[in-house]
Amino acid sequence: MHQIVVKALIREFLLKSGLTETLNTFDKEYKDKTTITKMDVILQLGLSKVVKRNNLSLKPLKSLLEILVSHLLNKKAQLEALTIASKAERIEDIPQDIPYDPSVGASRMNKMKKRPQSEYKPKNLDLSKEEEVVIEQKEDKKDETFSSNKGTFEISRKSSTKQVRLQDYQEDKIDDQSNQDKKELPNLLLSQPPKLINMKKQSEKKEADQVILKDQQDNNQDNQTMNIKVEYQKCNIKQHNVQLPISNLNYDKSIGFNQGKRRPQQKTITQPIKKLLFQGTMTGLPKSWSQPFIFKDEPTFFGLHQLEGGPCGVLASVQAYYLKHFLFSQSSYSKVSIKQNCLIAALSDIFYKSNKERLIIAIPARDSSMSQAIGIESCDQLEYQIKSFSYLYEILLEHVSLFFGQNGVTLFFYSLILTKGVEQIIQEMDSATNPLIGNHGHCTQEAVNLMLTGKAISNCFDGCKQIDELKIKGIEERSEIGFLTIFEHFQYLEVGKNLKEPLLPIWVICKEYHYSVIFGCNNDVIQDKPYLKNNLKEFDLVFYDGLNNPDDLIIITIRRLGAQLGKQKKKIQIEGVQFDSSDKVTPLIECLLKTKYGELELDWNDSMPIL
User: Fold this and answer.
1) What DSSP string describes 91-123?
2) Between the N and C ends of the chain, which has fewer C-beta atoms within 10 Å?
3) Do the Cβ atoms of 305 and 361 come closer than 8 Å?
4) Which tens digits make up the pLDDT trace of 529-552?
């Protein structure tokens, strides 16, 4: 896809610059005939706001390539100015009799790179004390609290983020604080059914007081009863009604135990693992895999952040199990320690599905190359005998700092392979030559199935299929987390009901070799056609992509085709760019969801459509 976008940018630049001969030569030498519209390029690059500002400027640039380069150069200049400003402020605060040390005030990530990994000691990590680079000034956030009035729930508004500027900084800060003090916190009623509250829209309104809000909601109920004959399952993330078995895990626990046997890594183990991972196509995991597990704040308080492309398969799978524990198994969404322990519970789920008898954790033994993620040959092993799921959870609590430090994602993936066993993984595959990591550092289907189901199955259909004398294995039982892929829409593979209708309304989705997550807040959405059994004409799903849209709360309303009396042609305006809805490109997510729900219409609820 990126080659098509690059070609479109170059062709438009040559055309706008009047270089017709160069353009003709470019078209002759470039053999790919795939075309893409200017609107698609703008949406793919996320340049809607930038294009709008350029069109309103006194001297607008002509081509998208010029707009993109100008935008990147301006961002670079702003970051350099902010860095100089922050250094100047630190120098002024240093007494003159003390020499200036440029390493003072370095971010946690820079310190992490300087610290040798061989110094790793299993201990708990308090993420509440984590340092951050001083580029953005964030106001303090208030935790969620129960009000004195019975049946009400107070949710603090999302704190505004104001970029630090060189001029008039103090005045802007004072004005921002005074405006923040004037805002009132909205109160939502717990007694209201989830189908009548949309957290995304309610959080953006300025509420007056509880009495007025209650009166308005009562009026809305009356109007809905009179005018709407079908039930609309409106999504409410914090007040879901997903039913789960009672968990015996203590999400507020901070002490684990460490009784494992440490042993150095041997070539007899590392060579088979590297062959299983890459099958000779790569020498090691790319640098993008060296990231830790990182939490997001409001409005996507339930999300994990991905820094670069590559480890999306691991992060999306862990994200799905993290939603199970953090969103559906407990109700304290603001404590960092709860987030931390829910992530440990998610990792425990994946480990326990792969092996219920042992756990092997890969820990750094020496420094690794900065150009790649840590290699398996640079890790030692800690082996434990597992007694129960809660026992495994308490073991991982002792190694919290391992997964929240540099290479946390990579070390988890190595630990999963060691715990499952190379020979067992190969036996579950259709072919022993299938790698777990593809050519571009992405997880293959075997790796994703290993994390979702505990088995490295190469296919997604139900059961087994016999082709002549060859037996091909599929998913044997209903999975706890589901899986959907755009490649079923292209008829490249088949996804069975064991993955389409999981036990929980959470799906890992694959869209053009990138994995993300989509989930619902009601068990009814698990069924392929929920509107047939529950008389639903509309229902909501939440889409989360930790790489491309980590800060966007995207709630997609799925509407049964034909639920509306007529489909009218209308013009849609997205951040200054207009196009006809009847002529727009069908988003891949819509094609993907059709493989589960059949013919449907998507309403992005004021969010930009994800192509």
Assistant:
1) HHHS-TTS---TTTT--HHHHHHHS-GGG----
2) N
3) no
4) 766 655 667 889 999 999 988 888
Tokens of 193: 């059914």
DSSP-assigned beta bridge partners for residue 380: 363
Give the residue from 109, 190, 104, 175 showing the smallest Cα distance to 144. Answer: 190
- Return the residue matching tokens 């893409």: 36
Tell me the C-alpha distance between 608 and 577, whole Å: 11
**Which two three-digit tokens encode residue 583?**
């002529």
Q: Is the dihedral of CA 262, 265, 268, 273 positive or negative?
A: positive
User: Which residue type occupies 318?
Assistant: V
How confident is the model over 388-420, as pLDDT tens digits? 999 999 999 989 989 998 899 999 999 999 999
User: What residues are annotated to the active site?
Assistant: 312, 514
User: What is the helix, strand, coil percentage profile of the chain, to 5?
Assistant: 40, 15, 45
pTM value surpassing 0.85:
no
What is the distance between the alpha carbons of residues 185 and 526, in angstroms, rounded to a whole number?
Answer: 34
Residue type, 328: F
Query: Is 500 within 8 Å of 528 (Cβ atoms)?
Result: yes
**Residue recorded with tokens 């970029």:** 163
d(CA 255, CA 19): 68
Q: Can you list the positions of beta strands (E) in 462-583?
A: 464-467, 470-473, 482-485, 506-510, 515-519, 536-545, 549-560, 571-574, 577-580
Do residues 381 and 415 lie in contact, with contact meaning Cβ atoms separated by under 8 Å?
Answer: no
